[in-house]
Design brief:
The complex is a heterodimer of chains A (about 400) and B (about 250). Chain A has helices at about 1-10, 15-55, 80-85, 120-125, 150-155, 190-195, 200-205, 225-235, 250, 255-290, 295-300, 305-340, 350-355, 370-385, 390-395, 400-405, and strands spanning about 55-60, 75, 90-105, 110-115, 130-135, 145-150, 160-170, 175-185, 195-200, 215, 215-220, 245, 345, 360-365. With about 400 residues, chain A is α+β, with helices and mostly antiparallel strands. Chain A folds into 2 domains: about 1-50 and about 255-405, no CATH class; about 65-240, no CATH class. In chain A, strands 3-4-9-6-8-7 form a 6-stranded mixed barrel, surrounded by 4 helices. The longest helix of chain A is centred in the N-terminal third of the chain and has 41 residues, at about 15-55. Chain A starts with a helix and ends with a helix. In chain B, strand 1 and strand 2 (about 20-30) form a beta hairpin. Chain B has one domain: Rossmann fold (3-Layer(aba) Sandwich). The chains are: A alpha+beta (about 400), B alpha/beta (about 250). The structure holds adenosine-5'-triphosphate and magnesium ion (MG).
Chain lengths: ~400, ~250
């Protein structure tokens, strides 16, 4: 009956309730959309970073972090690969050998980032094969290279042309090689797209005098939430070896920090939005409370405990906000779903800007229950704060003053 | 024993600025089953007196006892509970919960008392029927006339099985027919169920129907008259005491 009382009180002034509910609803839709857009953009960023760059977990020689040189590569063979893969929660591993070299075409020479990879295993992580825009990938040891489009255009090279790589191998050995370009690909991050050269792992190891060595083994756990446990397991296991284990968060702390800052910023904005909404709800509750002082007085005089009455009013406020929030969730789901499957493609300047920062110029919205829960919590807290007013009013109400109103 | 005793009640509003003596040394006793009206000119202290008896206002001096329990000085929570279980209220107007039907208004008070569902239903139906509202169970206050609303209010006041009912000018907003009808109902409850009523009024026809008439002037009891119980003659008012100090 208390609930009935609260429910009917809400609909006593339908117009006012609807206005309040819809203002909450629009705020929720707006906040949900912003938040999921942002999270979506962040997710894409992180995904590109992890899938094409760092992987989720990397095993490296413990010296490599401070001195990322080929001298600090580590011994790797099939048995090591099997050993890591046999860990619980590990899905697969990807070996890489990486170094900077000079890349030269017929006329131009540029700095390049050379990666020796196992194409099939790499493809599991980032569908690298789909990134090919021309030609095909190499077979292990066939002496061909795949280079990124940006680098190709800088070097003025096309599929079928020859590429010269020049640099230093392990322990100061001179490294030089001539490779036929078998394919071009477009790397999602601009920086990489301008300097990437892929070789097969055996070719790269041969070029760099690093037989049976790699600079990093990427480890992909079965699910993203297993990143930490897997990293921990590996650390324990490698305790007595000269190997270090890093998660992607540890490898790109600047990005993690930047994203967190970004998030804090938009949460602040959302906070302000909610304060505005809060005042709207407060206004409704205020007038509702003042209009009903007499009624409250009568309820208290016939024997309703103050705390019960305050509870009823709290439920009323809560109903209104919950209605607004639920309506907001339902209404907000549509644009979020739509833009999740049809990401916003950024054009013009925005594209430049975004590519500069190493992200794909698409912004899908994130579909994450977390966002909904967070919004729900916010509104709940807001309601509780707003309810302080009628609660205090009811707790301190003098019955006589009220019944004169 | 008297169910209500007021002892030397005094109330002064605004004691620091322009003091208003709303009550002056009022000592009264009410017996079970009385049908009493409090009359007097506007501003004479009728409402203040009823509020004191109902524990809605606090006297500057003196106290109120109900059935041997002193309510003056009780804690707010206790007092609310005491009112819930001992006192029925009918106010001048708009004293129903607007979003509840007549039936719900009456049962709500029993819900507050945590009574059995079946008992609630039975008593609410019985009281509303007794008040001539058998066809109005599901009407909201807005859909009821002023007289009907007041009868619902009386039914609600009775629902909690209080020791007595306080009604401050219950007929003030009613036309003559409705007022007389409400009085009929109250009288009936008084006679059939021995419910004690204390109500204030300006209305001579209402005063005529009371069996005890307390007249207030300027915050003090001017006259306290009882009609002799057996007959219903018009001019059988007998002076019982004159507490007037002014
Ligand atoms: N809250 C208050 N503050 C100051 N003075 C008050 C207050 N309530 C009542 N009074 C004064 O106390 C006196 C008694 O008021 P009360 O309401 O009891 O009169 P009443 O007999 O009920 O009058 P009416 O017939 O007009 O209802 C009046 O002079 C009134 O102005
Ligand atoms: Mg009055």
């Amino acid at each position: 009956m208390y609930l009935k009382l609260a429910w009917r009180n809400i609909w006593r002034n339908k117009r006012r309730t609807l206005i309040t509910v819809s203002s909450i609803m629009f705020a929720v839709v707006f906040a949900l959309f912003l938040e999921s857009l942002e999270k979506g953009a962040h997710d894409v960023m992180i995904e590109n970073m992890t899938r094409f760059h760092t992987g989720y977990i990397q095993v490296q020689d413990y010296r490599f972090e401070d001195e990322p040189s080929l001298d600090n590569a580590f011994y790797y063979d099939d048995s090591f690969s099997v050993r890591v893969r046999d860990f619980e929660l590990v899905e697969y591993t990807i070996p890489r050998i990486e170094t900077f070299m000079l890349a030269a075409g017929a006329e131009v020479t540029r700095g390049a980032f050379v990666m020796g990879i196992d194409v099939d295993r790499e493809d599991q992580l980032n569908n690298l094969k789909d990134r090919l825009t021309e030609g095909k990938f190499f077979e292990p040891g066939d002496g061909t290279a795949v280079i990124s489009e940006g680098l190709a255009s800088r070097l003025n090279l096309a599929v079928g042309d020859s590429l010269v790589l020049l640099g230093q191998g392990r322990f100061g050995m001179t490294a030089s090689g001539l490779y036929e370009i078998s394919g071009l690909l477009r790397h999602p991050t601009r920086e990489m797209n301008n300097q990437l050269v892929y070789l097969s792992l055996p070719d790269a190891q041969w070029l760099l005098s690093a037989d049976d060595h790699i600079t990093a083994l990427l480890v992909t756990p079965s699910r993203s939430r297993n990143i930490e446990p897997v990293a921990e397991q590996l650390r324990t296991d490698f305790k007595d070896e000269e190997l270090a284990v890093f998660t992607w968060r540890e490898m790109i702390p600047e990005l993690v920090e930047a994203l967190e800052f970004d998030r804090a910023q938009s949460r602040l904005m959302m906070g302000i939005l909610y304060v505005v909404i809060g005042f709207g709800i407060f206004g409704t509750i205020l007038t509702m409370t003042l209009e009903r002082m007499r009624e409250f007085g009568i309820l208290l005089s016939v024997g309703m405990q103050r705390i019960k009455l305050a509870f009823v009013v709290f439920i009323e406020t809560f109903f209104i906000t919950i209605l607004g929030v639920l309506a907001g969730f339902v209404l907000g789901l549509f644009p979020i779903l739509y833009f999740h499957f049809n990401p916003i493609v950024l054009g013009g300047n925005m594209e430049e800007l975004v590519a500069e920062w190493g992200i794909e110029p698409v912004m899908p919205t994130a579909l994450s229950p977390e966002i909904f829960i967070w919004q729900g919590m916010m509104v709940f807290i807001l309601t509780t704060i707003i309810c302080f007013y009628p609660t205090i009013k009811i707790l301190t109400l003098k019955i006589l003053d009220a019944s004169k109103a | 024993m008297a169910i209500i005793t007021t002892q030397n009640l005094s109330k002064i509003y605004n004691p620091d600025t322009i003091p208003v003596h709303a009550l002056r040394d009022v000592s009264l006793e009410f017996e079970e089953g009385e049908f009493t009206t409090v009359r007097g000119p506007s501003g004479s202290g009728k409402t203040t007196l009823l509020n004191m008896i109902g524990g809605l206002d606090i006297p500057n001096e003196g106290f109120v006892e109900i059935d041997g329990t002193r309510i003056t000085g009780m804690k707010d929570r206790e007092l609310i509970n005491f009112r819930l279980n001992n006192i029925g209220f009918v106010f001048q107007a708009y004293n129903l919960i607007p979003v509840f039907t007549a039936y719900e208004n009456v049962s709500f008070i029993m819900l507050l008392q945590k009574r059995e569902k079946s008992e609630m239903k039975e008593r609410a139906e019985e009281l509303l029927t007794a008040m001539g509202l058998s066809k109005k169970f599901d009407s909201r206050p807005k859909q009821l006339s002023g007289g009907e609303q007041q009868r619902v209010a009386v039914a609600r006041a009775l629902a909690s099985r209080p020791k007595f009912i306080l009604a401050d000018e219950p007929t003030a907003n009613l036309d003559t027919d409705s007022a007389m009808n409400l009085l009929d109902m109250m009288e009936k409850m008084n006679k059939e169920e021995n419910v004690t009523f204390i109500f204030s009024t300006h209305d001579q026809r209402v005063i005529d129907r009371a069996r005890r008439v307390i007249t207030m002037v300027d915050g003090a009891i001017d006259k306290d008259e009882r009609k002799s119980p057996p007959s219903k003659g018009e001019s059988e008012l007998s002076e019982q005491g004159d507490d007037s100090l002014s």
